Amino acid sequence: LLQRRGLVLFEPGTVTAENFTTFAGFLGTFFHYAGPHTPRAPENPDATMIDSSRDNRLRNHIWHADGGFREDAPAFTALFGKVIPQGGGDTMFASAAHVYDMLDPLFAQYLESLTVVQSPDATGHITERYLDPEEAAQARLKMPPFEMPLVRVHPASGRKWVAVNESYACYIKGVSRVHSQNILGILFDMIKSPEATCRIEWREGALAVWDNRVVQHRAVKDYAPGTARILYRCTMTA
Questions:
Q1: Which residue out of 98, 129, 152, 217 is catalytically annotated?
Q2: What pTM, to 2 d.p., does this model score?
Q3: pLDDT tens digits for 88-121?
Q4: Are 3 and 156 in contact (CB under 8 A)?
């Protein structure tokens, strides 16, 4: 189902904050990465916390794939609704495989010849998270920019997807800055189009599981300042 649809939702009561990682962990090996503003969940060491109280340092409101600043980004993500605002705080998802399917065949063929450079600091991911200059420098050494094909092929389903996102795509190699920006702008607009997206209204205890390779997501910051919004996350390799 994940290979066909990309995203699967489970109703509240299916899992708990303590066991949702065990439930989702059948997809692969846990891929642990936690920054200074995404600490481990207190009752679940395999989960990290996405907490609105740290929202001024989070980058989750920009379209992204989890760990997309790494060559070995996780294949799957699970997100559990721990504390949900009374209003707002939804998450939007987009299928980059559906975006590829919407492309004109000639344009798709051209995109398949391109290489994109990805970086964790393309939109300030490191700069805003690591306030200590030495910690920021060490993070940049651990997570340097890397190159990848702009269009990739899913290893299980064989579907192609557009492998760029607003958070981490820097530029397309071998073309001018204007050319690169215009192509990326077209693709970013397609990724956030109504045809490629859905919007999930969270309920406490609900669980979302998705293929992090082909599905991007972003939080919707429409809840009142000071409102508690806490989601628990775990990621898995294939």
A1: 217
A2: 0.92
A3: 999 999 999 999 999 999 999 999 999 999 998 8
A4: yes
